[in-house]
UniProtKB/TrEMBL annotation, chain A:
Source domain of life: Bacteria
Species: Actinoplanes regularis
Record-given protein name: Acyl CoA:acetate/3-ketoacid CoA transferase, beta subunit
Alphabetical list of InterPro entries matching this protein: CoA_trans_fam_I (IPR004165), NagB/RpiA_transferase-like (IPR037171)
Family note: Belongs to the 3-oxoacid CoA-transferase subunit B family.
Automatic annotation (TrEMBL), chain B:
Name of the protein described by the UniProt record: Glutaconate CoA-transferase subunit A
Pfam family, one: CoA_trans
Chain intervals with Low complexity compositional bias: 8-24
Recorded coiled-coil stretches: none
Keywords: Transferase
Keyword S-adenosyl-L-methionine: no
Amino acid sequence: MSRADVCVVACADAWRGDGAVLASPTGLIPRLGARLAQLTFAPALLLTDGEATLTYDDEPEGWLPYRAVFGVVAAGTRHVMMGASQLDRFGNQNISCVGGWRRPARQLLGVRGAPGNTVNHTTSYWVPRHEPRVFVERVDMVSGVGHDRGAVEIRVVVTNLAVLDFATPDRSMRLRSVHPGVSVADVRAATGFPLVVPAEVPVSRRPTGDELALLRERLDPDGLREREIR
Amino acid sequence: MTVNHFQPGSGPAVPAATTGAGPSRPRHAEKSSVMSVDDMVAELRDGMTIGIGGWGSRRKPMALVRAICRAGLRDLTVVSYGGPDVGLLVAAGCARRVVTGFVSLDSIPLEPHFRRARERGTIELTEYDEGMLYWGLLAAANRLPFLPIRAGLGSDVLNVNPELRTVRSPYADRSDLVAMPAVTLDAALVHLNRADRRGNARYLGPDPYFDDLFCLAARRRFVSCERLVSTAELIDSGPPQGLLLNRMMVDGVIETPHGAHFTSCVPDYDRDESFQREYATTDWETFRATYLDGDEEHYQKAVAAR
């Protein structure tokens, strides 16, 4: 079992209990997580091929062009897991640019669908490299809105070190679990704002034998997931 | 609202439509919107707001974009789900403002020319959520001043676009929503797989993107196509649901085989990934001199000769 395997099941668990909603993962590890969830404990989950085709166990089952995705966003029947170049303690996220918006130091993707996603349906985040540069006091441009700005639900943030959630009175970020081999101090040092840390922090759940077999034999036999974490 | 049947002026001879068997139709049924790339460029002016169909690096009307770069139009406002169309127009100095939710080459996440222009402060940007842009085109297509939408609330999209206003529901919910203004276009450029000479057109791939909306939001509408076919062949080439454009939505039809290159135009062809990499990693002057200084035929030959 590798760190990447732990991350895949932590991502999969984000969609636990969601029912028939569209899972929209960004990145390989979230995609493996969503597929794993669909094949095991969340069989009602909908997935696409990343373009316009709905897939079940990677086989086509329906049509969902971009215009229909915006309908799903507005209807709220979706749970997206996005990336984040910056993320603050209330879950405000930035994928647009670093530095001043008018003339950024680094132009990134643009806000994409982040504003609409976060005010319409559940959102989670995947951060392959947990570091203070990502977990910042204040994001440079609010692309995805946080709990202090009207987010529907930021469910979890899965990183290469830990799982974080917002189960606090003011819905600020809390350490839910640390991955095997990671200490609470490691996570604190990699986070650029004061994190809510419970007295007892559990270790992130390990994949079951069935999950590992699915991952290794069917979903990612070439182990590409290992490359997404550095 | 005027329904516009565009009459080509001094365009080249129209290719003979390959009609199937059967008697030929009367001439008045053969009203043609066929034009050349140069005819289209002649209708565009500096400072126009131009909408470009497709999505990212997918089914972009690249032959039409290349023609605009060659013609050296200036101060354009480019409305697009941005890909290399935006990159080319920015690098060539044609675009003053970009209206978008992202600019990406898909397999290469960041568009290098757009990125450089933003970091040098040489381009103006109107940055919307992707769904807001859709709503803005929908509002323009429906001749509405705005459409309400949740997307944008609470985000910095409202701060970087200080002209955006919210609207309060007059019903019991009293909710505040973004009043997304109509995104009205002077011209729309789209690329589809098949079209007839009247302006009916269809896509054959999995996604129509927003090409119909771009046309409905624009005053002048230009569709390039992989192949110009007879109406009968157009009808036979796929299901009726794939007939995205009709004659009310199109002023000019331009046949540009391989005209979406290097973006994808499935099922006719996939994205040319190696060429896209070359585009993304070659300095602009070299790329322009190699591929864009001649006409479209020169471009296609230069691409084939790599």
